[in-house]
Amino acid sequence: MMILQLFLVSNSLDYELKTQIVSRKEMIDLSEKTWPIGVMDSGVGGLTVVRELIRMLPEEHVIYFGDSKRMPYGNRSEEEIVFFANSIIKFLEDKGVKAILLACNTVSSQIGNLTSRVPLFGIIEAGCVAAIESSKDEKIGLIATVATVKSGVYDSTLKRIDSSKKLISNDSRKLPQVINDQLKHKYLLDKHIHECIDPILEAGDVNELILGCSHFPIIEDEIAQIYPKLKLINPASKQVQILTEYLDGKELRNNANLKKVEVYTTAGIKEFEGALERLNITTTKLGKVKLLEED
What we know:
Elements (H helix, E strand, L loop, with lengths): L1 E10 L2 E10 L13 E5 L5 H10 L5 E5 L11 H17 L4 E4 L2 H4 L10 E3 L2 H11 L4 E6 L1 H6 L1 H9 L4 E6 L3 H7 L4 H18 L4 E5 L7 H7 L4 E3 L2 H14 L11 E5 L3 H10 L6 E4 L7
Parallel strand pairs: 1-6, 3-4, 3-5, 4-11, 5-6, 7-8, 7-9, 9-10, 11-12
Antiparallel strand pairs: 1-2
Helix pairs in contact: 1-10, 4-6, 4-10
């Protein structure tokens, strides 16, 4: 299978979109502008990327897959993450997508191990570039899943783009799950927000914070209320901007005014309904599907 990774290389602070092909077989024909854009995540969190897609590319047909049954991926082994992600990629390819946005930071940290016949757009590069463009400080904060922090991929990516920056990171095993399943439980939400962010602020002078899990932008308002002076960086906008540049460069922007949003999940329809309402996303389809035999 072929993997087309989209990545950024820097010359000072001037970024140029590059493509790197790692694999053997031919990619599918991507000449059809009206083909949908796929978005994948381990639960409802990636809907924050869908929100940005609707805002920045309103004419596109979007197909979203959230694997709520196996979330959070951040507590899984690398082998499990790659297996689940490749299964979702195949599902989206079978739906005829022309590109896939990896809304999940944990999956993006394994992008080099994934197989795909369409371009894959990770979110980690996008988050690092957005942080560098936003911050003049040496230190930048990061909250993410256990797997993402443990992988060190944000540290290495940030250092490659701008070696003067230093990342202060902390993970959370429980906050993504609380956001996915218990979003209205304010006490629990605030408790885990404090447990996740307080150690970063105590460790150094941090003014910007990368929301390094797709679930975290869902509670951006709650975080801002607790830490009003902290600038929150949502990588989704930069990720969609990179996708837009790619589509324009390949003349693959859709101008057919489809404006369709399909959402598929392996569990938790009610949780998706709540997140969709919170993010003000209207769907043309919301359904539960079987991804693996165990489903």
